[in-house]
UniProtKB/TrEMBL annotation, chain B:
One of its GO terms (molecular function) is ATP binding. Keywords: ATP-binding, Cell membrane, Membrane, Nucleotide-binding, Repeat, Sugar transport, Translocase, Transport. Residues 8-248, 259-503 form the ABC transporter domain. It comes from Prosthecomicrobium pneumaticum. InterPro entries: AAA+_ATPase, ABC_carbohydrate_import_ATPase, ABC_transporter-like_ATP-bd, ABC_transporter-like_CS, P-loop_NTPase. It is a peripheral membrane protein. This is Ribose transport system ATP-binding protein. It is found in: Cell membrane. GO terms for cellular component: plasma membrane. Belongs to the ABC transporter superfamily. It comes from the Bacteria. Pfam families: ABC_tran. Its main location: membrane. The keyword Hydrolase does not apply.
UniProtKB/TrEMBL annotation, chains C, D:
It holds the Pfam family BPD_transp_2. It is a multi-pass membrane protein. CDD domains: TM_PBP1_transp_AraH_like. It comes from the Bacteria. Its main location: membrane. This is Ribose transport system permease protein. Keywords: Cell membrane, Membrane, Transmembrane, Transmembrane helix. GO terms for molecular function: transmembrane transporter activity.
Length: 369, 507, 330, 330
């Protein structure tokens, strides 16, 4: 139902007016008395502040908190379980009224949640689910699948189906960060194979990007040695930053003509606009996360019923439609390909995921669609 | 008479370390072309005074003038630039650089290159060879990496380095402590030549005979204060010693003990490829056996081989305390009742950061345990016993050994082995760098130990020491026993037994 | 009123000097620094000074502290172990995998501890017997061990929730978190061993002058190998504490704290050249770093500025000790 | 036919020994190891042995190589710089920010290089004048510098696309990538300086025995401070190469390679105790690590197994050198 202008199912992702936010705060504070006796305090633990995606989430939350007049205390989990635990304790130490956790690994969630529950503090978990917390974030199997499929279709449009089969598909992974990114990159591979029928699995190359520009560049450079001259090079990765590093490596090798890149996250739009071969990125809209997260937190503090899971609605962002989402960029005339999401095959993929022994114990992370 | 300013004039020098005064109001003067010997017992402050002169240490009081000009060297480089060069007491070289580089690193010859002035290695090599030849040590190859040389050879290279630059004042702090007499003679030749060139030399030594041979004047320090200066030609050993110590020393060596006990060590046909060849001897309880040899003669390895420091021995038969004994490791040697004091006190003897108490207790730590833990009081009383027993001059058992003077460190190294169960004590160069007073104390203690039933094996390149101390003496040359002497052998006899050329070098 | 005569000044100076000159005076300087830090944060943040917060700092630094504790004698003896944090990661992984296979949790722990000991033993053999450079050997070992942990889990974090086991990380005794107790007991034990036992003397002697120590019949190699094993074991314990605390085992869990471990040991006054150091210095350095983290977070300082501040504090702390040495004219 | 008499055997042995005993024999062992690695990969992967691939290995390792190159003389002289990689990150950030403010790109580069030099100078002063421990000082500096880079960018990667500038990272001369050329020229230059100039001898002397060097009038402090500045400058150049190559400046870009830089220097035969080492050893170590990474990636080996392999290779390489030393009876 509607909570001062916030209605989850109908929400378009824009920021609620300051007036409405303040009304939410007033209601929340009357139901849940601020623990410091003055005003509501919300704790936000970021995943790793020097990743642009995470930074955008933080900026969005800050803007909302400021408009609403609640205090936001921020900590940096630094991609580390122990640090996340210490940060959670520091929130409790400061008597925060609500916690938003962007955390490293689902498996660390239980311990943190136990402490939150002991303190009767409610939690929303971003991207990485935690037991008993509201989940808000990426639909990883879907976003990955979407990006992979788009890349396949864009490659066919550029090189023709026959040529694409001679080409190589390189995916920049982040294997050490566990099951969730793996579902994303796994989805990219499956989506690509779904779009390019008869593509040889031997032509799929996986590299470890370590989630940084430079390593993506180095490993892509290494792997280019395996790709014969003149065949298509189709690239996607765990996030835009890694995709960018891989793109630069192909450029440095002078093989840009054979390249198509699809990013993930749409959080480095400028690069996408500047690079002709960077055709699209799967949109997550991290800058809008705060527009959901803060109202959601206030609604819960106000005692409202809220759904336990809110998945981001991913959209393909291209040079042709970018202005619809980011007004500071102009849309190009070239509208790109006419993308078809392979829905039936995606359902098969989801079914397969549910059977996967690798994901045993992580079934809750697999969305229903 | 026109009185020109002296070459060096230090006046009223004062220095304390951590509040404890080490030098107070010291005056020290050297004329141009004069050799002044600086004497004093261990810890009197000789090295400290010279380190102050060369800018290694700051001073608390006093002035320094060179050729009438007040100077205040902030760092050794300033002293070097002013022609004041120090040959320090402790070997101070760059072990991984070549001999030539060690000699010239401070003043490298350069040549024009294509792009830049580069180091003229050929010139450096040539001049190094000349310098070493001049010194009489032409056999040292300028291209050898320093760490491959023996201690004595490294010392020679250091001397060559001190001579390489244009010095006005050359300070030599115990240059001959690790050298033999013959080698020292070569050094004296150089000093005389420098003197002729009007270079001033400060010569620090504990060997009175050397001092009387080479110096024009003798300045004595005692407890950090001036204790008199003497014209060398107008004085004698006794007066100088009296100034140094406040009393005279008398005979350095105690009378040999009377009763010898049963045989403690017997060595037969001991060989070590390239180093020792068919060595045989024995020592009885109550006996001191001296082994004399020059560098390279085998004295550097003989004691170690027996102790086990060179690892398991194959050739030869050794009996220790009546039982068959095979050297294997220091741990095993110690367990069999051998104590060992290494020549290189700083490198192989002291654990610098530990206290006197800890250093003494270390070798037989298990004897100071009460249950699981070490008993500090047991350690302390043991340490105190030997601080008194050996006359170790220290502020107490808790002083760090690194801040003791050399002679006292040496006594600590000996004290380590003075426990029940040690039958054989092996000492390499037991009094290197030790002052006369302390040397006499150490000799006295070794004799006491022998009288208490220890067998003592002393390996030394100091011929007087071996002649004076040993009940019997062996002479080694190129790994073989070339002479066996009873008590009363003279240094000259021992010396004569070695056929070695005074300029040592391994063939 | 008494005026300060030169004599009284010098007497005071001598007394101060002798106080500062004691072996533990470097530790005293760190203690003063630590207390200063606590005072500053107490003033700046209302949340800082409470028993609960102090205890949570203690329990947060525990697993790092465990590794730094045993790293201290190892470095004193002239060794160095860069693989310890990787061993912590592997330990958690081995336990969780074995337990998943149905093995009793304590048996799994025993196996993991044994594996760690074996790794430490290899480190020790390579560095002493083969005389290889410890930095390269243990860096190589770090790479191997963390690689294996990743291979074994496929990079995934594994849940590890077994009530009896998790108590190690989450339990309290009289309100004091168990990890903190474990760490303090380790420091206390190592202090006793280092200062009161034969083995402890051998540690200082081996690192102070290995050749001299060997020549007086101290088993230098055995001492150093033992310390590598102990270091690996502390890695295992740290891994156990971490996994128990987090309720999950991550293959790379402790890796990013490696530099903190080494920094704490050096900041604590232990010399990388061996022969000198104390575990209390290390403990204070660990507490300083943990307190800094906690205090700055409580003050809502951004993590970027936290990095800057940590650097400044490291430099300040080591400068302070230098000023002490200078005052002594060392 | 001649039979080997003891005399000829010992003559041969002497010749071999003298060959192996030369200062560069450790380097020769690494060269053999490197060639072995190249042969193995050539056999195992059809993609490995090609000019193109060799060049891409070279350009991949260039920025690490630059930092390791200047780190070598610094460690030879008894110093250590853990901040160099952080300086690389800061350099890119400063350039991109200044350029965004409208400053000419080369002016921006000049400012960034100047900032780096100042940081190196501070490292040098703190470690020599104040005699602070270099590990703590430069670790602290690393934390400060990388923290500042994050603060300045707000943690974001900044695009840096200026054709003239990007040539540094992406250009080629006769087909050889510019970063590779830059690195090789740096090694060559340092080799000349170290072996041919007065400054070079001062470097070895300062690290071999600072006390002795000071005593014979070598300006030890000035030498070491200069090397800290040079190290920081190479960090700046590495940062420029990296930013130019990637077309972007990331505040955290080089940080994770810190251990690789140190490992390469030590593996290359430079002693952490100072006084010994050569830049060619470092270069070979860098090439070995880069080749390993490339070859294993081409063979499609997972990054986890790559970690394991890298560890094994590090240990093997240093063992091989030890075997050489043993053969010499060192
Ligand atoms: N590190 C130090 N700090 C303070 N005082 C020291 C230090 N080292 C030595 N001293 C003191 O300096 C003075 C002279 O030293 P030392 O005991 O070595 O000389 P000594 O006993 O006169 O000489 P020796 O017994 O060797 O002939 C003593 O009072 C000694 O305790
Ligand atoms: N750096 C130092 N710190 C503390 N005490 C010192 C230091 N250097 C010298 N001392 C002390 O100063 C006193 C004088 O030492 P110095 O080395 O000058 O004696 P020395 O006369 O040269 O003795 P030796 O004949 O044994 O060489 C000694 O007691 C010594 O322990
Ligand atoms: O890789 C990261 C992903 O795990 C997280 O969900 O969003 C930010 C990404 O950079
Ligand atoms: Mg004395
Ligand atoms: Mg002296």
């Amino acid at each position: 139902q509607d909570f001062h202008g916030f209605n989850l199912s109908g929400h378009d992702g824009s920021m609620i007016s300051a007036e409405n936010l303040k009304a939410m705060v007033a209601e929340a504070a009357s139901v849940s008395k601020p623990r410091n006796g003055e005003k509501l305090v919300i704790g936000f633990a970021n995943l790793q502040r020097d990743v642009s995606f995470c930074l955008k989430v933080e900026e969005g939350l800050k803007a909302n908190a400021e408009a609403a007049g609640v205090e936001l205390v921020i900590a940096d989990n630094r991609l580390d379980g122990a640090t996340a635990l210490a940060n959670a304790q520091s929130f409790l130490q400061r008597n925060v009224d609500y916690v938003i956790e962007f955390q490293t690994d689902a498996n660390f969630g239980a311990t943190i949640m136990q402490q939150m529950n002991d303190a009767s503090t409610k939690v929303t978990a971003i991207d990485i689910p935690m037991p008993g917390a509201t989940f808000f974030g990426a639909n990883n199997p879907r976003s990955g699948y979407m990006g992979g499929a788009y890349l396949g279709q864009a490659a066919i449009a550029k090189f023709g189906a026959d040529k694409v089969k001679e080409g190589y598909f390189v995916v920049g992974e982040l294997p050490q960060s566990g099951a969730i990114p793996a579902m994303r990159t796994g989805g990219q591979v499956e989506g690509f194979l779904a779009a390019v029928e008869g593509f040889s699995p031997d032509h799929v190359i996986k590299i470890d990007t370590k989630n940084v520009l430079e390593e993506s560049f180095t490993q892509m450079t290494n792997v280019l040695g395996r790709i014969p001259a003149g065949v298509p090079i189709m690239v996607t990765a765990i996030n835009d930053q890694s995709a960018t590093g891989m793109l630069r490596a192909v450029k440095q090798a002078g093989r840009e003509a054979d390249l198509v890149v699809v990013g993930m996250g749409a959080d480095e739009i400028q690069t996408m606009m500047d690079e002709p071969t960077f055709v699209a990125s799967v949109g997550y809209f991290p800058e809008r996360y705060g527009n959901y997260l803060l109202p959601l937190a206030l609604a819960q503090l106000a005692g409202k019923e809220t759904p336990s899971t809110v998945l981001v609605n991913h959209v393909i962002v291209t040079k042709g439609n970018v202005c619809e989402f980011y007004s500071n960029f102009k849309c190009a005339d070239d509208k790109g390909i006419d993308f078809q999401f392979p829905d039936a095959k995606f359902q098969e993929h989801l079914a397969a995921l549910r059977q996967s022994p690798e994901l045993k114990g992580f079934e809750n992370l697999i969305p229903s669609n | 008479m026109p009185t020109a300013a002296p070459r060096l004039h230090m006046q009223g020098i004062g220095k304390s370390f951590g509040g404890v005064p080490v030098l107070s109001g010291v005056d020290f003067t050297v004329e141009a072309g004069e050799v002044v010997a600086l004497l004093g017992s261990n810890g009197a402050g000789k090295s400290t005074l010279m380190k102050i002169l060369t800018g290694l240490y700051g001073r608390d009081a006093g002035t320094i003038a060179v050729d009438g000009e007040t100077v205040d060297f902030a760092a050794p480089s300033a002293a070097v630039a002013a022609g004041v060069r120090l040959l320090p007491q402790e070997i101070s070289v760059m072990p991984d650089m070549t001999v030539a580089e060690n000699i010239f690193a401070g003043d490298l010859p350069l040549k024009k290159g294509l792009l830049f002035r580069s180091v003229d290695d050929a010139a450096m090599r040539r001049r190094s060879r000349e310098l070493l030849d001049q010194l009489g040590f032409g056999a040292i190859d300028p291209d050898t990496v320093m760490k491959r040389l023996s201690v004595a050879e490294q010392r020679i290279v250091e001397i060559a380095r001190a001579l390489a630059g244009q010095a006005r004042i050359l300070i030599m702090d115990e240059p001959t402590a690790a050298l033999t007499e013959q080698e020292a003679t070569l050094i004296f030749r150089i000093i005389r030549r420098l003197k002729a060139q009007s270079v001033s030399v400060v010569y620090i030594s504990h060997y009175l005979s050397e001092v009387f041979e080479i110096s024009d004047r003798i300045a004595v320090l005692r407890d950090g204060r001036n204790a008199g200066t003497f014209r060398t030609a107008e004085t004698n050993h006794a007066d100088v010693l009296a100034a140094m110590l406040g009393n005279t020393v008398g005979d350095l060596y105690a009378e040999g003990g009377a009763a010898k006990g049963e045989e403690i060590l017997s060595v037969e046909a001991l060989s070590l490829p390239g180093k020792l060849d068919d060595i045989g001897f024995s020592i009885r309880a109550g006996e001191i056996l001296g082994v004399f040899g020059l560098v390279g003669s085998g004295i550097e390895v003989l004691g170690r081989a027996i102790y086990g420091a060179l690892g398991p021995m194959k050739a030869g038969r050794i009996r220790l305390g009546g039982r068959e004994y095979r050297p294997a490791s220091p741990v095993a040697g110690k367990r069999s009742g051998i104590g060992f004091v290494a020549a290189e006190r700083k490198k192989e003897g002291i654990i610098a950061d530990l206290t006197v108490r800890e250093n003494i207790a270390l070798s037989f730590q298990e004897r100071f345990e009460r249950g699981l833990f070490v008993s500090k009081s047991a350690e302390t009383s043991h340490a105190k016993k030997w601080i008194d027993g050996l006359g170790i001059r220290t502020r107490g058992p808790e002083q760090r050994i690194r801040t003791l003077s050399g002679g006292n460190q040496q006594k600590v190294c000996i004290a380590r082995w003075l426990v029940e169960g040690v039958e054989l004590l092996i000492l390499e160069e037991p009094t290197r760098g030790v002052d006369v007073g302390a040397r006499k104390e150490i000799y006295g203690k070794l004799r006491d130990l022998a009288d208490r039933g220890f067998a003592v094996l002393v390996l030394s390149s100091d011929v007087e020491e071996v002649a004076g101390l040993g009940d019997r003496a062996l002479v080694l040359d190129r790994g073989r026993v070339v002479g066996r002497f009873g008590r009363g052998a003279t240094p000259a006899q021992l010396m004569a037994a070695t056929s070695a050329d005074p300029a040592f070098h391994a063939a | 009123m008494a005026t300060a005569t030169p004599a009284t000044i010098s007497a005071t100076r001598r007394r101060m000097t002798s106080l500062l000159g004691r072996p533990w005076s470097g530790v005293a300087v760190l203690l003063v620094f630590y207390i200063g830090l606590v005072v500053v944060f107490s003033v700046l943040s209302p949340f800082f000074l409470s028993v609960r917060n102090m205890l949570s700092i203690g329990s947060n630094v525990a697993f790092i502290g465990l590794m730094a504790a045993t790293g201290t004698p190892l470095i004193i003896a002239g060794g160095l172990d860069l693989s310890v944090a990787a061993i912590a990661g592997l330990t958690g992984v081995v336990i969780s995998l074995l337990h998943m296979q149905g093995l009793d949790i304590w048996l799994a722990v025993a196996v993991a501890v044994f594996v760690a000991a074996a790794i430490g033993w290899i480190n020790g053999l390579f560095t002493t017997r083969l005389k290889l450079n410890p930095l390269i050997v243990t860096l190589g070992m770090m790479s191997i061990v963390s690689g294996l942990a990743l291979v074994m889990t496929g990079g995934l974090t594994r849940p590890l929730m077994v009530p009896g086991f998790n108590v190690i990380g989450q339990g309290r005794v009289f309100g004091v978190p168990l990890p903190l107790i474990l760490m303090l007991v380790t420091f206390l034990g190592l202090w006793l061993v280092l200062t009161r036992t034969r083995f402890g003397r051998h540690v200082y002697a081996s690192g102070g002058n290995a050749e001299a120590a060997r020549l007086i019949g101290i088993p230098v190699e055995r001492t150093v190998v033992t310390l590598y094993i102990v270091s690996a074991l502390s890695g295992a314990v740290a891994g156990i504490v971490l996994a128990a605390m987090l309720g999950a085992a991550a293959p790379n869990s402790a890796g990013q704290h490696l530099l903190t471990v080494i920094a704490a040991i050096i900041l604590g006054g232990t010399s990388l050249n061996g022969g000198r150091g104390s575990v209390w210095g290390t403990l204070l350095a660990i507490l300083i770093l943990g307190t800094l983290n906690n205090g700055l977070t409580l003050m809502n300082v951004s993590s970027f500025w936290q990095d800057v501040t940590r650097g400044v504090v490291l430099m300040l702390a080591v400068s302070l000790d230098q000023i002490r040495s200078r005052a002594l004219g060392d």
